[in-house]
Design goal:
By secondary structure, this protein is an alpha/beta fold. It has a single domain, classed as Aldolase class I (TIM Barrel, Alpha-Beta Barrel). The chain has 12 helices and 10 strands. The protein has an 8-stranded parallel beta sheet. Strands 4-5 form a two-stranded antiparallel sheet. A hairpin with a 7-residue loop joins strand 4 and strand 5. The longest helix has 21 residues. The chain is globular. The N and C termini lie far apart (47 Å).
């Protein structure tokens, strides 16, 4: 294990103004995105779309890493440059989604556990050979107060899997992104989300310690503390920022180099505003950044619409969102910037 390299890569990903583009949508997920704009989800269309994002001029100012799907890791530009090399040459670190998705947790109706540990050690060697220097594993934690979800065991099962994955990554000199996502679906309040998120993060770091994971060579990708979509009382931006900051300060060790929030179904503007408000609170022991999928991609996807003539407009939308989130890294984003040219 090259500890120095793990630490260097983790810190470079969350360098000044930088965050992560999550472009690791599975085939079914990207099909849903393409269906919304009337584009067929063929391998070539997926490749072409990702090339459009990866070749956006200047994006490397604000994007320190890109999470790739396994298919994308093996693809190349139209003129034959492998995507990992294209990104690396721009100073963007290539990463890979390695989990096999959340499946029903046997014996616990309504809960899920992420699968993909079988064969992971060998797969990581292959991903590393293809150029991936970091990885991502997503655990899914739902909230259903009436059903007593999440259960204590459900939290433990997912935290244990995250820790096993992280240890295997570091063994292969790959930085693990730890993603325990407490979903914003449901009718729960922000207070309930905060309590569940704290319990989840405490267990995650207990398991990481038990598995001897070197925290300085990891990144955390958590949800923000936010009310469920169906909750009649939605917290404002400052309330979300304060609850999220308190939760993380209570639970995340200062040894962790960076926290890269997932957007979790927030709109592009909401995700940027929340990130900005958190950073505006002051200094934290870790870099507070982003690892957004939809919140970075939805605007360029809509602008593109599958039409070659719209590629430059789509690139402009992607660059704009990357830049605004880069500004939110230091609390310098302002609402009026949304309407700027």
């Amino acid at each position: 294990m090259n500890v120095e390299q793990l630490i260097t890569v983790a810190n470079e990903i969350v360098g000044p103004k930088k965050g992560i583009l999550a472009a690791d949508e599975s085939s079914p997920t990207i099909k849903k995105r393409f269906d919304q704009i009337g584009v067929e989800s063929t391998e070539e269309n997926r490749r072409s779309y990702r090339e459009m994002l990866f070749t956006t001029p200047g994006a490397e100012e604000y994007i320190g890493g890109v999470i790739l799907f396994e298919e994308t890791l093996g693809q190349s530009t139209s003129d034959g440059v492998p995507f990992p090399k294209l990104l690396s040459d721009k100073g963007i670190i290539p990463g890979i989604k390695v989990d096999k998705g959340a499946k029903p947790l046997a014996g616990y109706p309504g809960e899920k556990v992420t699968e993909g540990l079988d064969g992971l050690r060998d797969r990581l060697v292959g991903y590393r050979d293809q150029g991936a220097l970091f990885a991502k594993w997503r655990a899914v934690i739902d909230i259903d107060e009436a059903q007593g979800i999440p259960s204590r065991f459900g939290i433990e099962a997912n935290a244990h899997a995250l820790a096993r994955y992280a240890a295997l990554c570091q063994e292969a000199d790959i930085v693990p992104i730890i993603e325990p996502e407490v979903l914003m679906d449901g009718a729960h309040s922000i207070e309930v989300c905060q309590a569940v998120t704290e319990e989840v993060l405490v267990e995650v770091y207990r398991q990481l310690a038990a598995h001897r994971v070197i925290l300085e060579g990891t990144l955390l990708k958590p949800n923000m503390v936010i009310a469920g979509k169906k909750c009649p009382e939605q917290a404002d931006v400052d309330e979300v920022a304060n609850a999220t900051a308190i939760t993380l300060l209570r639970t995340v060790p200062g040894a962790v180099p960076g926290i890269v929030f997932l957007s979790g179904g927030q709109s592009a503007v909401e995700a940027t505003a929340h990130l900005n408000a958190i950073n505006a609170l002051g200094e934290f022991p870790w870099e507070v950044s982003f690892s957004y999928g939809r919140a970075l991609q939805q605007p360029p996807l809509a602008a593109w619409g599958g039409k070659p003539g719209n590629i430059e407009a789509a690139k402009a939308e992607y660059y704009k969102r990357a830049k605004l989130n880069g500004l939110a890294r230091s609390g310098d984003y302002r609402d009026e910037m949304e309407n700027a040219a």
